[in-house]
Amino acid sequence: MSKRGVKAKASSDLVASNCPEKETMCDAEDALSTLRDDVIVDKVTSNISKYMDIKISEVIKPINELTEKFDNLIERMETVEQRVSDLEDVTATNEPRIAALETQLKKAMERLESFENQSRRQNVRIVGLKEGAEGRAPVDFLKKWIPEVLGLQQGAITVDRAHRTGPPMRLTGTEGPRAVLVRLHYYTDTQRILQAARAKGTVNTEAGKVSFYQDFSAEVARKRKESANKDLTHIAFLQETHLTDDEHRKYCREWVGQIFFSSYSTNKRGVITLIHKNLPFNVIATHKDNEGRYILVKGMLHGETVLL
């Protein structure tokens, strides 16, 4: 074999002997690359997981807080519902008792009002008596004055006590005298006074008109005032009648009890107020315009002062 052949063979053997090492190195490089990739993937995955955990935690925290609040709210609502249910049960139990108590209270108030009105049966309320006319001895004054002004012919009356009602005029600033409350010893005297006042109609004194009324409780007075307001529908107010004084008298119809009018010479004005004959209206004072534009009438209706 020539030298060239020997060298070629030796080179071939050397290459053959080096191939396994090369393959081993390639395998090692592949394994290392795979390991490196796995490490990178694990690292990235870990970072992503941590990031996601942080973000999810940020989202879950307010959700947990809201959940806790809702749980508390539900618990409170259940408590409220239970309390409402308990109250409804108590109310259902108490309603009959309350209704019975209201009925008893109403009866008691009616009896109390009845007793109060009975205690006032011997009282007479005088309206329009000049302030101070009774002097320092109102009982002695009224024992003489009432029979004289009403013309009582059946003997003297017995007055237990008498006084003005309400505070003095200088404190209230009101106009007109305060009413006088008279307590009589006998109920028969009260009846005599009221009957004489009704029979006489208008009681005039030097200081003006005086009216006598029965004394009532506040509740009865309120009901009478309401009745008086309803009775105002029995009063007719007419304007611009264009009538003279004589012509106004034609309004004296069957149902008319009192007429108040004001007229003017030109027949272009005129007013008139008509009051039903069944209305217990007692005139205190009137004021009319000389030119027939208005007329004011002040009087007593069911114990109340009214201005028409």
UniProtKB/TrEMBL annotation:
Residues 63-125 form a coiled coil. Keywords: Coiled coil. SUPFAM superfamilies: Tropomyosin. InterPro entries: Endo/exonu/phosph_ase_sf (IPR036691), Transposase_22 (IPR004244). Transmembrane segments: none annotated. This is L1 transposable element RRM domain-containing protein. The lineage of its organism: Eukaryota, Metazoa, Chordata, Craniata, Vertebrata.
